[in-house]
Write a structure and sequence with these properties.
- The protein is α/β, with parallel strands linked by helices.
- The protein has a single domain (about 5-280), classed as Rossmann fold (3-Layer(aba) Sandwich), CATH 3.40.50.720.
- Helix content is about 50%, strand content about 15%.
- It has ten helices and seven strands.
- It has helices at about 15-30, 40-45, 65-75, 100-130, 155-175, 190-195, 205, 215-225, 250-260, 265-280; strands spanning about 10, 30-35, 55, 80-85, 135-140, 180-185, 235-240.
- A seven-stranded parallel sheet has the order 3-2-1-4-5-6-7, with helices on both faces.
- Helix 4 links the parallel strand 4 (about 80-85) and strand 5 (about 135-140).
- Helix 1 packs across helix 8 (about 215-225).
- The radius of gyration is 18 Å and the shape is globular.
Length: about 280
């Protein structure tokens, strides 16, 4: 079986955060990377003239852009060996305070985009698996997929959807050589919250005051990279201890969270508003 670092890898959301760290790590290992982002200036700043990286301006939430992105990968390299679904948005607040278009946008990017881009790339991944013995789909999910905590209710729902999609997809393609993985981070120092509230940083300098508190994105990128060399499909929490969020799926824990959190809606609303204000002012 060839080294994963001789493969062509598509990474969505490569202009910042986890995606940017993943692109850098894969390139250092020798992979040929195609990455995308919605804003070309920020993407250019992220990848510069790094050899082995192709940047494409595309919004994974839009069907035409997804099709164009796959075409660009094939035009550039003639094959596709792995996909890393990283692009995503979050929105902090209670459901009753969310604009409808924000709900639609988060679902379109975080869930529909992952499923549909996988559908478009799957024939090429199956071909790669026939040729080399393996191909990979890696979805950057969240510990919120296991424990749905306000004020991230809609975001959590999309990640729970990704979790279910990955489990089903594994049962379709594992025997045909496609490994399917999820990497589930705890809070990460990224721009996701500012972006989700309509304030995407325009440069690295602009991003400094908009980053959410959390772990270094490079720690998540390391686990994504390990997935591309794993023997089978992985579901991994980053950091590992955050996998305790799976306890939220147990009925007794879930019922306790229902009772406790639902009595604190006003406090949750105020806490979310302060967090957003700090990252968007």
């Amino acid at each position: 079986m060839p080294s994963p670092w001789s493969r062509v890898v598509l990474v969505t959301g490569g202009s910042a955060g986890i995606g940017r760290a993943t692109v850098s790590r894969l390139v250092r290992e020798g992979a040929l990377v195609v990455t995308c982002a919605r804003h070309g200036e920020r993407l250019d700043e992220a990848i510069g003239d790094v050899p082995g990286v192709t940047g494409v301006v595309a919004d994974v939430a839009h069907a035409d852009d997804r099709a164009m992105l796959v075409d660009r990968v094939l035009d550039r390299h003639g094959r596709l060996d792995a996909v890393v679904h990283n692009a995503g948005l979050g929105w902090a607040g209670l459901l009753e305070d969310m604009p409808g278009e924000v709900v639609e946008g988060i679902v379109a990017l975080n869930l529909t985009g992952v499923i549909e881009l996988t559908r478009l790339t799957l024939p090429h991944l199956l071909t790669a698996a026939e040729r080399t013995g393996r191909a990979d789909v890696v979805a950057v999910s969240s510990v919120a997929a296991w424990s749905q905590i306000p004020p991230l209710t809609v975001y959590s729902a999309t990640k729970a959807g990704v979790h279910g999609f990955v489990k089903g997809l594994r049962r379709e393609v594992t025997a045909r050589g496609v490994r399917v993985h999820t990497v589930n981070p705890f809070f990460v120092e990224t721009e996701w919250l500012a972006r989700g509230h309509g304030h995407p940083p325009l440069s690295d300098a602009d991003a400094r005051g908009r980053l959410s508190r959390g772990i270094d994105p490079a720690r998540v990128a390391e686990q994504i990279t390990r997935c591309l060399d794993a023997r089978g499909g992985r579901t991994v929490a980053v950091p590992r201890w955050s996998g305790l969020a799976r306890l939220g799926e147990l009925p007794p824990v879930g019922r306790t969270l229902d009772r406790v959190l639902s009595t604190r809606a006003d406090g949750i609303r105020r806490l979310a508003a302060r967090a957003v204000e700090r990252r968007t002012r």
